[in-house]
Input
Amino acid sequence: MKNAAQNAISATSGVLRTLGMTFMHSFRKRDTIMYPEEQPYLPPRYRGRIVLTRDPDGAERCVACNLCSVACPVDCISVVKTEDETGRWYPESFRINFSRCIYCGFCEEACPTYAIQLTPDFEMGEFDRQQMVYEKSDLLISGVGKRPGYNFYRVAGMAVGGKDKGAAENEAEPIDIKTLLP
Amino acid sequence: MEFAFFIAGFIALAATLRVITCANPVHALLYLIVSLLAVAIDFYALGAPFAATLEVVVYAGAVMVLFVFVVMMLNLNAETVARERHWLRPALWTGPAIMAGVLLFAMLGALIDGHSIGVVDGQVLSANSVGKQLFGPYVLVVELSAFLLLAALVVAAHLGREDDDVEDKDTARRERGVSKAGEQR
Amino acid sequence: MIFGLSEHDIISIGLTAIRTLVILLGSVLVAAMMIWVERRLLGLWQDRYGPNRVGPFGLLQVVADMIKIFFKEDWIPPFADKAVFVVAPAIIMLTSMLAFAVIPFTPTWTVVNLNVGILFLLAMSSLGVYSVIFAGWASDNKYALLGAMRTAAQMISYEVFMGLSLLGVVLLAGSFNLGVIVESQRGMWNVIPQFPAFVIFFLAGCAEIHRAPFDLPEAEQELTSGYHTEYSGMKFGMFFVGEYLGIVLISCLVTTLFFGGWLGPWLPGFVWFALKAGFFMCFFILLRAATVRPRYDQLMAFGWKVLLPIAIINVAITGAIVVAQS
Ligand code: SF4
Ligand code: SF4
Output
């Protein structure tokens, strides 16, 4: 009997206490961010809309190696390669279907030239699904993105457009295999 | 009031007929509920609102819910409906129907001859007077039905009893489980 | 004289018809507004805002939702029992709206002044069970059926406590008539002498309209959404509005039976009624925001082992006091 009374009292007070505590939440600060008026802070490494960046010199970084396309788990990148007269590769077309992209960032990790980068922007809603397919002209920006000062062709050992073998940064002169001199 | 009485009475008759002829038990129960509601309206029209509401609360609201509850668990399907339909062959129901009809005519005749058919007038029997009647002249009947209900209650409590002296069901189950495991070992 | 009715009769019939319409529309509108109030208040108690975009303070959210739900596909599953499936949601709207007929909002504003008012209310709430049971059965879906079975047991049980808790009030007022009951509270609101009855009635009412924390028939986490799993479109909307109608109804009833209805100083009667009823509607929402759903056997045990004895003791003591005083 005593036990039952104790139970009843503790149960009742428990319910009343939770009611009171919940009610006191009326006076707390709201956690909601009123989105369109009030923009949330997105860190620079946020994985949002994808862009293609350029060299510090202003040339396209992408060398159409297709590594991003291979890395993409949903296969939403399609790249067609072409070359200019100096032998430098670049994409003839670069297409990302954002209605399939899951913003995983694998493409960014796979890219050897830091060309493809994810940016802190997620406002990409469209009424027409076809509008979600971004062409190269939509993707290419005229800036270096998150990697200032990096130029793939200047560090790569490939002879291209006026830069010969061995002329890259931190690269030794190519060894002349036809001579015996050290 | 007379108008309401006859409409409700007609609906009650029609619904009851459907209760008998419906092959699907749940539909039949639906008709039975409608019939009970119609009877309640008849009570109301006759000036007995207390009886009318009690009819709805007790019969339509509680007893029939239990009926529906049980029927719901019977796992009815098209097969049952077909069987039910089979049972509704005229050969099976004509005999009883004729006898019931004869009974009905006998009763109607007796009622009309005896001039005991009431009229639908505006007199209202209040809950107060019903209570005074029940606990005045009819107190013995009330007490008897109370005995009956008490007996039913005791039986129900006995049947639904858990193991003695165990307050918490969970512990009871756990203890049972433990003892069984012990026996096996 | 038309159809044997005098002019006076016709005018009074017309007035009653208008009053009925106003009360019906008003109750449904309030129920619809409750959807918005509930979402805003739940937001308040969960440290967020709730719908606040459509119209001022998000008030038109209800309209937007209604438009959406009207244009949704009204799908009847091919395996369902069609007739019963269609009838079920109508029953709950019908019974809850009928129940509003006997509630006295002010001394003059009530549709029928029934001398068995309370019994009529109990009758309507007991008929409301069918809506849920038939919906569950007709859906031919195991979750729906489980929800329906829980409802049948829960609602029948809690109807008993609801009725018993009201007996004390009836004893004090000496009448089943709701208007008389309100008048009898002029000296003191019933909630003071009948406090246990008030608590029981409130809890039983909560269970009767299967509102959180007693929302076992729906119990999203276990039964997807219980008896209305298969419902869509406006049929689901009727269950939805029916639930809120139930909240409004129980709040009005608590106000009428225990808190003196329209009685109160200074303000006009209807304002008092609305204030009191509004308070309880908000309290229902607080209850939903704060409490957890009990297990099914706990619910039953609580009803039969706690509420029933208290209700019976309350009736006995009240009866004894009333007899001693007279
Ligand atoms: S973010 Fe992921 S899914 Fe999107 S394009 Fe890059 S690899 Fe593909
Ligand atoms: S974006 Fe990077 S990985 Fe993709 S094709 Fe261009 S260079 Fe290769």
